[in-house]
Amino acid sequence: MRRNSQRNGSAPAEPTMKEVAKQAGVALSSVSRVINGHPDVSDEMRHRVLEAVQALGYEPNLVASSLRRGSTTTVGFIVADISNPLFAEFSKGAASTLDQAGYSMVLANSESNPERDEQMARLFRWRRVDGVIMSLTDQERKETVEELLRLEVPIVLFDREVPGLPRASMVTADHAGGMRKATDHLLDLGHRRIALITGQRRLRPTQERLKGFTEAFKARKLSHPKDLLRLGSFDASFGAAVIAELLEQESPPTAIISGSNQLLVGVLRALRRSGLRVGRDIALISCDDVPLAELHDPPITIVYRDTVRMGELAAEMLLELIRDESAHPRVATVPTELIVRQSTFPLRT
DNA sequence: GTAACTGCATTGCTGTAAAC
DNA sequence: GTTTACAGCAATGCAGTTAC
Questions:
Q1: Chain C bases under 7 Å from protein CB?
Q2: What percent of chain A has pLDDT over 90?
């Protein structure tokens, strides 16, 4: 249990606050006040303590501090895929906000495995984190929801909705609005055979995107092409398989909307295999701005959302719930924007 | 099986000294 | 005598370990 290993007979001992107090000739509580910037400390006391701190090379023990405070000043962060640039940006925004507030972030990768969502949530409960930010792979999985209910700390969900969690806020994007803009853009260009490929139907972004997609058709009194809807997964492999299958159809799509940057990879692979060129043979819009979309030749039109800001918002909302037990959970929605690039074109009839 | 102890830092409360 | 500023004591947190 002791971290002062020399007391166990091996490496050099790390000085404790008690030793600093002894060296400075003051009480332990005075050292604590100096270390923590308490206002009721004289300059002379501060000087003596800081001198002892320097002489001994004392560094605060956060484990001991957490024990006394009942707070680890740590936030757990569960992402579905650590290699996804979307989550990298989201994490960046959250980490920077948490850092400014004196909190550390512990990142866990669920590998888009719903069981790991549950395991990571349990691990964070055991670690006594002060709050959790997470992007659930399956927002309806019973075991995961039960584990989240056992977490007695505030939660902020990224783009997911789990009814019944008492202290859970949500940060999301206007997916319906973004999809409506993307669909309108393609409809304006004359496309009618528009394929929508996105994740599982039970996930909130999928439901919202489907809503925006169908509304765009409805507003023009057109029926949306149900045979071109493919809802199943955000994986590249799903995107590739679905595009290969759609292109085999008697009446293939003239335009595709890909629901994620990972799907986009699969979509592009399948299009390349089929010999179709984006922006010339088939129009393509993707969701979320990643380097692939911008650097692709031609650059790909995207539905943009500020994921760094989403991360910042998630952290701000979590800190609100951590600091104020009476604070009510809330939903923050960031706007979406269509960034038009050369991957779409007027349909030649 | 269970009570006592351990690690280490924080904080409420109290005491003391100095200033007015 | 009262107020203010500051310092110190002692209780406290909790999970693992040790002693009985």
A1: 5-10, 12-17
A2: 48
Number of domains in chain A: 3
> How many angstroms separate the CA of A117 from the C1' of B3?
39
Instruction: Verify that A118 and A230 share a domain, yes or no.
Output: no
A6 touches strand C (CB under 7 A): no
Domain assignment of residue A340, yes or no: no
Model-level pTM?
Answer: 0.81
Query: Containing domain of residue A142, as a range?
Result: 72-173+307-335
Nearest residue (Cα to C1') for B10? A68
Q: Which nucleotides of B are covered by protein (CB under 7 A)?
A: 6-12
Q: How confident is the model over A58-98, as pLDDT tens digits?
A: 777 766 677 666 677 788 899 988 888 889 999 999 999 98
The count of other CB atoms within 10 Å of the CB of residue A65 is 16
Determine the nucleotide nearest to A42 by Cα–C1' distance. Answer: C6
- Asked if strand C contacts A11 at the CB level, meaning under 7 A, the answer is no
Q: From the C1' of C14, which residue's alpha carbon is nearest? A: A67
Report pLDDT for A70.
65
A1 touches strand C (CB under 7 A): yes
Kindly report which amino acid residue has its CA closest to the C1' atom of nucleotide C13: A68
- Exposure of A164 by Cβ count < 10 A (0-12 exposed, 13-18 middle, 19+ buried)? exposed
Would you state the pLDDT for residue A3? 36
Determine which of A61-70, A131-140, A199-208, A228-237 has the lowest per-residue pLDDT on average: A61-70
Q: How far apart are CA A287 and CA A301, in angstroms?
A: 9
CB-based burial, A103-136: b 16+ in 10 Å, e otherwise: bebbbbbbebebebbbbbbeebbeeebbbbbbbb
Q: How far apart are the C-alpha atoms of A78 and A96, rounded to whole Å?
A: 16
Note whether A293 and A184 are same-domain residues. yes
Instruction: Report the CATH number that the domain containing residue A206 is assigned in CATH.
Output: 3.40.50.2300
| Tokens 């959250």, residue located | A94
Q: Which helix (H) or strand (E) holds A28?
A: helix A28-35
d(CA A150, CA A142) in angstroms, rounded, equals 13
